[in-house]
Amino acid sequence: MEEVRIYTDGSARSNPEGPGGYGTILHYVDKKGELHVREYSAGYKKTTNNRMELMAVIAGLEALNRPCRVEIISDSKYVTDAFNQHWIDSWVRNNWRTSQKKPVLNPDLWKRLLKAKEGHEVTFTWVKGHAGHSENERCDKLATAAADGDDLLDDIVD
């Protein structure tokens, strides 16, 4: 199984409900030992930081065209803890309700992320944001540039 590292970051200018964007970088080393890097980003008119953090991960996973062993590297505890602390398992089991019986925020994107994860072996690694991690810093630049762009998309909540 091929190994891929996906670095992600999300940004929202006026959180909540301001312009926002995400940045995603895929690293893949081929059989010859050559590193391949792909970058993805998009900006949205009205969104939240957490939605953009989720979209960054989704964009990376949806870019994969065959099953891979994937490490997601994110500065979002919202994303990494949902999997590493197994909150997502409880949310699914409890019909998208938290342990306090409140609706989970962003269920449309959590469901999309779970679908994008199918067929892959995925682990989540948290890194401190704005702490000099080169790929995280690049993702932040991609996300903020996308949020500041002119061709912003509508963030449609299902």
Tell me about this structure.
This protein has 158 residues and is an alpha/beta fold. The chain has a single domain (2-147), classed as 2-Layer Sandwich (Nucleotidyltransferase, domain 5). The chain has five helices and five strands. The chain has a five-stranded mixed beta sheet with strand order 3-2-1-4-5. A hairpin with a 5-residue loop joins strand 2 and strand 3. Helix 1 runs parallel beside helix 4 (107-117). The longest helix has 14 residues, at 49-62. The protein is globular.
Label this structure with key terms.
158 residues, alpha/beta, Nucleotidyltransferase, domain 5, five-stranded mixed sheet, 5 helices, 34% helix
Structural class: alpha/beta
CATH class: Alpha Beta
Q: What is the name of the CATH superfamily?
A: Ribonuclease H-like superfamily/Ribonuclease H
- Oligomerization: single chain
Task: Outline the fold blueprint.
Layout: E1 2-12, E2 18-29, E3 35-47, H1 49-62, E4 68-74, H2 77-84, H3 87-93, H4 107-117, E5 121-126, H5 134-147
Parallel strand pairs: 1-4, 4-5
Antiparallel strand pairs: 1-2, 2-3
Helix pairs in contact: 1-4
Compose a concise summary of this entry.
This protein has about 160 residues and is α/β, with parallel strands linked by helices. It is built from 5 helices and 5 strands; from the N terminus they run βββαβαααβα. The protein has a 5-stranded mixed beta sheet with strand order 3-2-1-4-5.
